[in-house]
Each structure stands twice: as C-alpha cells, then as structure tokens.
C-alpha cells in the first residue's frame, strides 16, 4: 500500500474524460490513495498522542480518525468486490447496469471526499468538476435500470413502499398505506 503514498501525478490529476473517470483502475486507485493517506495520518496521531496519553488514551483521542479510516477501508473493499462482480457478470445487459451503479458509487464517494483529494492535488479543480458532473449524469441514468435492479431482488411491492416500485396506481396505493 505504500506505493499510494507517493506524490500524486500532476498529469493524471487533470484527466477528466469519461473513460478515465469510469475506469475501475482510477476509481480503485483513488479509494486506496484515500485509505493510505488516512492510515498515515492516524499512525502519526497515535504516535504523537501516545507519548503524553499512553496507548489507551491515544487510541481514544484518535477514535474518530480510526473510524474514518475503517470506513474508508471498507469502502475500498466494497468497490474492489463490486468491480470484480461487474467483470465476472456473464449477462451483457446486466453487466452494463451493474457497471453504471458501480461507477456511480465510486464517483459519488470520491466527490463526497473531494476535499481529501484536492488538499493533496490528487484531483485538479477541473477533474473535480468533471467527477461531480459525471456523478450527477450517472444518477440520472440509473433511473433507466432502477426497475430491473429492484426486480432482481424480487422484493414485493408492499416491502418497497416506494411509488416508483409499485405496479398500478402507485401514488394512490402509497398514500393509502401511509394513512392519507
């Protein structure tokens, strides 16, 4: 993981094309970079605070940072597994839908932590804008596959309770269920 602590590449920090942003390698590298930066930061904080507070006190002092690191690690594992599942999906149509959702997940998470990437010049301002714009576009595109994605889980209408998931006269049925 130490290779991700190297200085960000000033060329790739500016690449903003859709092919690049939807490339699983870029997405996974960004997630790993974030996790490695957090790990480095937590290690320095623990070392600093353990001198005055002891190991238990340092751990407690750094708990929020440790939780952020844990969340970042889990998100990286989720993305890696998601990318692998998309790659292994045998059905072309299903693979396209899964790729869309996977890209949306990755870009949305990168956008939510854009400050982390911007503070170290991992993502240039133009790339940050492109990430946000593409995430919004993909959010809009998900509506085209939303029904198929929900149907894949075979959830009955009464479980989902969302008008978009209901079959007939969805809004009237929904309002009756919630008591209007």
UniProtKB/TrEMBL annotation:
<protein>
    <recommendedName>
        <fullName>acyl-CoA oxidase</fullName>
        <ecNumber>1.3.3.6</ecNumber>
    </recommendedName>
</protein>
<dbReference type="InterPro" id="IPR036250">
    <property type="entry name" value="AcylCo_DH-like_C"/>
</dbReference>
<dbReference type="Pfam" id="PF01756">
    <property type="entry name" value="ACOX"/>
</dbReference>
<dbReference type="InterPro" id="IPR002655">
    <property type="entry name" value="Acyl-CoA_oxidase_C"/>
</dbReference>
<feature type="domain" description="Acyl-CoA oxidase C-terminal">
    <location>
        <begin position="23"/>
        <end position="176"/>
    </location>
</feature>
<keyword id="KW-0560">Oxidoreductase</keyword>
<comment type="similarity">
    <text>Belongs to the acyl-CoA oxidase family.</text>
</comment>
<dbReference type="InterPro" id="IPR012258">
    <property type="entry name" value="Acyl-CoA_oxidase"/>
</dbReference>
<dbReference type="GO" id="GO:0003997">
    <property type="term" value="F:acyl-CoA oxidase activity"/>
</dbReference>
């Amino acid at each position: 993981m130490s290779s991700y602590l190297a200085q960000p590449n000033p060329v790739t920090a500016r690449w903003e094309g859709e092919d690049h942003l939807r490339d699983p390698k870029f997405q996974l590298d960004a997630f790993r970079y974030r996790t490695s930066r957090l790990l480095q930061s937590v290690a320095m904080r623990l070392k600093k605070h353990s001198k005055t507070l002891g190991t238990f006190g340092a751990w407690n002092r750094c708990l929020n940072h440790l939780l952020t690191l844990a969340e970042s690690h889990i998100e990286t594992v989720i993305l890696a597994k998601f990318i692998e599942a998309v790659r292994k999906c045998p059905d072309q149509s299903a693979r396209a839908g899964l790729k869309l959702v996977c890209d949306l997940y990755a870009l949305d998470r990168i956008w939510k932590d854009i400050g982390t990437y911007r503070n170290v010049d991992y993502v240039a301002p133009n790339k940050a804008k492109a990430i946000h714009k593409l995430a919004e576009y993909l959010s809009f595109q998900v509506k085209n596959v939303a029904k198929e994605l929900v149907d894949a889980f075979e959830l009955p209408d009464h479980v989902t309770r969302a008008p978009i998931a209901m079959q007939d006269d969805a809004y009237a049925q929904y309002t009756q269920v919630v008591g209007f």
